[in-house]
Amino acid sequence: MINCIVSAPGKVILHGEHAVVYGKTALAASLDLRTYLTLNNVESDDIIIHLPDVDVERIWKIKDITEAFGEMTEDIDPLKPEAPSDVWMERIKAFAEIDSDTADTKSLAIVSLLYLYLKITKRKSQFFPVEISVLSQLPAGAGLGSSASYSVCLSASLLIASGAISPGADLQWSESELDLINKWAFIGETVIHGRPSGIDNSTSTYGGALTFTGGNISRLERMAKIEILLTNTKVPRSTKVLVAGVRKRFNEYPDVIKPVIESIEALVNKCVPILEEMNKPDLDKCYAQLEELVEMNHNLLCVLGVSHPSLENVRRITSHHGFHSKLTGAGGGGCAVTLNRPDQDGEKLQAVIKALEDEGYKCWTTSVGGPGIQQHSIDDRKIVIRTTC
């Protein structure tokens, strides 16, 4: 009998937005808002999918799966992650009745799930019936790694179900098992996003914090959990358009913008050792330095032209209450992150949250630097899914 519950965190970019496009270093950390996935064996001969956050319910018959994909899955190995070919993508989209040219994230999430199921779980020439349910605390499309946490949860649960990795409820997965989860999750992200950097799925898999430079990912040796206030302005933005805008500014004013890009990387290099030393006695000094870096980084991003009136409004409100904030991700709307010192006055925090929510924004008090993918006990009644989309 196969039954498991897994969860994986979202991510937040602390420093390095946009500069990373120019080969500079970005710093990301796991976000204590998580996606939860439950995988259960079922008596019926079905694959049952529940994705209520994106209003998706699907049921496929095992016999139909076998007829459609049996010959394509004869020589698969879950220990050897493989990206889908065009033939695979076309076959899956046709089977799932999804338009072949779709760029809809919801539709591609179904394609990703089906591809990972087909490639990971076939045993002894047979597929097995399962019911998969996913709920998330992460808002979709806000730059917080919701699709990556979904892909990590899918990969881990299917690898557990196939016997490719050990259950992780009462033990730590080995480094090689985490690497396998991460590789499959990256493939899931590739199906959804085309050309992901790998930073989102890696942060979600391993937790803590990591740096990303030119495709190379390095995990921080130590990362203390830091409390933050996360604010979603609910202003939609296009990462592609924002990146293009920075490129245009870079090409027109290279002598101005190049030093800004280099300064952003310098901020990353300054922040990393502070985060790794946060457990030392002088926390007040550490937080003072982090607050200065937050202010400087946001101002540098303003020079790049990627802020937005909504983000400046968040900064105005939080600054009025003595907090320090910056945009996170592509900018142009989306989310802002605000440092929340551990000794912060609770009434002051609630006051700033009320002021932000009065503007129509959505706020979360959460933390960064926590664990990556986890398996939970089936009997753990403490798990409460707070859907906040």
How does this structure look, described?
This protein is of the alpha+beta class and 389 residues long. The protein is built from 11 helices and 12 strands. The strands form 2 sheets. Strands 1, 2, 3, 4, 5, 6, 7 and 12 form an 8-stranded mixed β-sheet that branches. β3 (46-51) and β4 form a beta hairpin. The two termini are 32 Å apart. The mean pLDDT is 89.
Quick structural overview:
The chain is built from eleven helices and twelve strands. By secondary structure, the protein is an alpha+beta fold.
Distance between the termini: 32 Å
**Secondary structure: number of strands:** 12
**Which percent band covers the strand fraction?**
15-25%
Which term fits the overall shape? globular
Mean pLDDT: 89
The SSE string, one letter per element, is: EEEEHHHEHHHEEEHHHHEEHEE
